[in-house]
Design brief:
Layout: E1 4-20, E2 23-37, E3 40-46, H1 56-64, H2 67-71, H3 76-82, H4 87-104, H5 108-111, E4 120-121, E5 124-126, H6 131-140, E6 146-150, H7 157-167, E7 172-176, H8 183-195, E8 200-202, E9 222-224, E10 243-246, H9 248-251, H10 254-266, E11 270-273, H11 280-283, E12 295-296, E13 314-315, E14 318-319
């Protein structure tokens, strides 16, 4: 029987509201790819992201555009040329990893050259809100070892930084400005993060307009997110950033993400493994990278009102490796 492709749009409600500098939402919309043949089924998930010009309909159309070659046996290596980096390629690439594992019985981590997949401690995200509301959310989550704090509003970030630290005095804190700071505020805000003991600041300036990072002292480590996608984006980040946030929806799948991590480490970057707001199916392939990361941010399912069946097991902030029923 020939390989068959199934593409689905699925919606998962968020527990409450998720807010960053670019806006708020109450649901996560994902695209799921399933490849079936001879009783084996492999799945992958992606989250189309408007920041990168993606829509759900556009991603589905892109995947449908390679239906013929995919059902005829397109493999992961050929996929890297058939589709550009981004959400569409991520869903297909991860489905192919899972499909290969299901057909051969060889786990994806073995195929990736790993000894095993270990549990990882994930950051837990505090959405952008008023300083008081963020302090209350941080206090509620203060027993979690790592909190990721969304910042980047036009004003009030200095108050948010101080309020969250006071509410969670023992947590490791990561600030994520989502490109929301300006050159004029940069040094003041970085100094505030350093004074509050933040371990990392993600993407303080807009991608492509982050040259000021080369010209200032950095009292806290700075991580590229929107500025880094695949390996071809790394060289111009040297001297600007201390770390890179690797997300499969940006790299276009696990295949490129594995290569990106190696290339980034060779250039001296620390690694953060991140995610878009999706289900356990979207997090599972990224767990293969967690062992090489300084920080892991795979809390998407913790922010949802419901996850998929056979989802990842979270014990507080400790996330266990995916079961074969979920992926890989």
């Amino acid at each position: 029987m020939a390989r068959k492709l199934h593409v689905d749009r699925q919606v998962f409600p968020i527990a409450g509201r998720f807010s960053i500098a670019r806006g708020s939402r109450t649901e996560a919309v994902v695209v799921t790819v399933t490849l079936t043949q001879d009783g084996a089924a492999g799945r992958g998930e992606c989250v189309p992201y408007a920041r990168y010009g993606e829509t759900v309909d556009g991603v589905i159309a892109t995947i449908e555009g390679i239906r013929g070659v995919l059902e005829s046996g397109l493999d992961r290596q050929a996929l890297q040329e058939a589709l550009p980096p981004g959400a569409a390629r991520n869903a297909v690439d991860c489905a192919l990893w899972d499909f290969e594992a299901k057909r051969t019985g060889v786990p994806a981590y073995v195929a990736a050259g790993l000894d095993r997949v270990r549990p990882a401690t994930t950051a837990y995200t505090i959405s952008l809100d008023t300083p008081d509301a963020m302090a209350a959310a941080a206090a509620k989550a203060a027993d979690r070892p790592i909190l990721k704090i969304k910042l980047g509003a036009p004003d009030g970030d200095l108050e948010r930084i101080a309020a969250v630290r006071a509410a969670a005095p023992d947590a490791t804190l990561i600030a994520d400005a989502n490109e929301g700071w300006t050159n004029e505020r940069l040094e003041t805000h970085l100094a505030a993060c350093a004074e509050a003991g933040f371990a990392l600041v993600e993407q303080p300036l807009p991608a492509g307009r982050d040259g000021a990072l080369r010209e200032i002292s950095r009292p806290v480590a700075i991580c590229a997110d929107e500025s880094v996608h695949g390996r071809d984006t790394l060289d111009h980040l040297v001297g600007l950033y201390d770390a890179v946030n690797v997300k499969l929806d940006k790299t276009g799948g696990l295949t490129e993400a594995l290569a990106l991590v190696s290339a980034a480490q060779a250039r001296g970057f620390a690694i953060m493994i991140g995610c878009m707001l999706g289900t356990s199916l979207g997090m599972a392939p990224a767990m293969l990278l967690a062992g090489r990361a300084r920080f892991v941010d795979l809390d998407g399912p913790l922010l949802l009102a419901r996850d998929r069946e056979d989802g990842l097991v979270y014990e507080g902030s400790l996330v266990q490796p995916p079961s074969p029923a979920l992926w890989g």
